[in-house]
Design brief:
302 residues; mainly alpha; three-stranded mixed sheet; 9 helices; elongated
Length: 302
């Protein structure tokens, strides 16, 4: 198991513990006030907990080294985590709508709103702190599970802030219909977040190309070697959570020896490793003065 990847599980444990604490606080705020908006906020936190547990399991699996059955490693397991969290969000949104709609026609009085909102505010501070920590760790280690968890927590932060404002206005103005209305807005917000997570997971499982900024770095590195009289084509990239794979053909003068070509390829791969972390390059050496070298640029050899 890769020590650097396995160490990410400590962030997942932090997310699980934080989700349990925040869920307890939000359920307490709902019990104090009877607010359907605060209940909807607590239901969203249930998805945080489920997603954090799934992230913990998938991070452990993704950290496993390549084996005979998974020669390219297990890093794609992280996509199942973010996809699962997205599906939980869809379920939470449906429950929120069911809970909130009756309140539009038959709103009820809110109790101890000041204490309940203070408790919700404490939960928001915890979520914000953990979200920032996960975002930094996810970016540093290129972990889609931690990044997805971070974005979900930040969405939860904004959701709770909106709920606090909505419940406060309902209490101050007496417009009790604001409470279920805010809950429905929460449902719309979490639906969008769920769609984003599921879409990103699907793109990863379908071997999507590298992001534009990473592709720019790749082509800049290849450009450095073009000044030496070589060229590249059939460049293809795909991502697998933190892992990056790239295939390309290296066109060199036909008069070069095998060793000259090999030495060039070694330098290209070393340079890529310096500029981009977790990159595995697959290269194919070809003579630039042979017409056959230009007939295999597609995915399928013609």
């Amino acid at each position: 198991m890769s020590p650097s990847r396995f160490s990410l599980t400590r962030y997942a444990w932090l997310s699980v513990i934080a989700a349990l604490a925040v869920l307890a606080l939000k359920l307490g705020a709902w019990k104090l006030t009877g607010s359907v908006a605060l209940l909807s906020d607590a239901l969203e936190t249930c998805t945080n907990l489920g997603g954090a547990v799934m992230a913990l399991l998938m991070l452990r699996l993704a950290a496993q080294p390549p084996d005979d059955e998974h020669a390219y490693g297990h890093s794609k397991a992280e996509y199942f985590s973010s996809g699962f969290e997205g599906m939980l969000i869809f379920l939470a949104a449906a429950v929120i709508v069911v809970q909130a709609l009756p309140g539009l026609w038959k709103p009820h009085e809110l109790q101890q709103a000041d204490i309940g909102l203070a408790v919700a505010a404490v939960a928001t501070v915890i979520n914000f702190a953990v979200a920032r920590l996960l975002a930094l760790a996810g970016a540093r280690h290129h972990s889609i599970s931690l990044q997805a968890d971070s974005r979900h927590l930040m969405a939860d932060v904004w959701t709770t802030l909106g709920v606090i404002v909505g419940v406060a206005l309902a209490t101050l103005t007496g417009w009790l219909w604001l409470d279920p209305l805010v809950a429905l807005l929460v449902a719309a917000n979490v639906l969008w977040e769920g769609y984003t997570l599921v879409r990103e997971s699907a793109m990863g499982l379908m071997d999507a190309a590298w992001p534009e900024d990473e592709q720019n770095v790749l082509h800049a590195v290849l450009g450095e070697f073009r000044t030496e009289g070589v060229d590249f084509h059939a460049v293809r990239t795909r991502r697998s959570a933190a892992r990056r794979f790239v295939n390309f053909h290296v066109l060199v003068p036909g008069s070069w020896t095998v060793k000259q070509g090999h030495d060039l390829v070694e330098r290209v791969e070393q340079r890529l490793a310096e500029k981009l972390p977790y990159v595995t390059a697959f290269t194919h050496l070809e003579p630039s003065d042979d017409p056959c070298s230009y007939g295999d640029e597609g995915l399928d050899r013609m």
